[in-house]
Design brief:
It comes from Bifidobacterium pseudolongum. The longest helix is centred in the C-terminal third of the chain and has 10 residues. The chain has 6 helices and 5 strands; from the N terminus they run βαβββαααβαα. By secondary structure, it is an alpha+beta fold.
Length: 139
């Protein structure tokens, strides 16, 4: 028996559209994704409707005692979300002293995948992602 993990995450519909069409490559989160998870399944933050899936290609942690501090401008550049919207999304931490170094944030590099690829990942594991990229290569 094999267990695979995916992470179900809420996202604003317009942010998913930006991921889907390649304008947004990084998703910023204030909680870490389980190490065993290689994909997000995104649901609309308001309606909970399924929006789509994305492969997690990398993770970078910022803040905390052993990681580089972050800035609002840096997060805005990574996520392509304006600073004022980021402050609205993460308003809970505006009152934290030295938040840039005290609060852990996670930047996940993502690329959209279709449901067939997600299913393939669940059945075959991370090799499903590398096999898909090799399919387009010539001999």
């Amino acid at each position: 028996m094999i267990t695979r993990s995916v992470t179900v995450a809420k996202i604003r519909r317009e942010y998913w559209q930006m991921i889907q069409d390649g304008r947004k490559r990084y998703e910023i989160r204030d909680s870490p994704v389980e190490r065993t998870s290689s994909a997000f399944v995104f649901v609309d933050a308001e309606s909970q409707d399924h929006l789509g899936c994305a492969r997690i290609t990398s993770e970078t942690r910022f803040g905390g005692y052993d990681a580089s501090p972050w800035t609002w401008n840096m997060l805005s550049q990574l996520s392509t979300i304006p600073v004022d919207e980021l402050k609205e999304l993460f308003s809970w931490m505006l009152g934290v002293e030295n938040m840039e170094s005290e609060v852990d944030l996670y930047a996940y590099e993502v690329e959209p995948i279709d449901e067939a690829t997600l299913t393939d990942y669940i059945l075959r594991g991370p090799d499903a992602f590398t096999d898909k990229s090799a399919e387009g290569e010539g001999a």
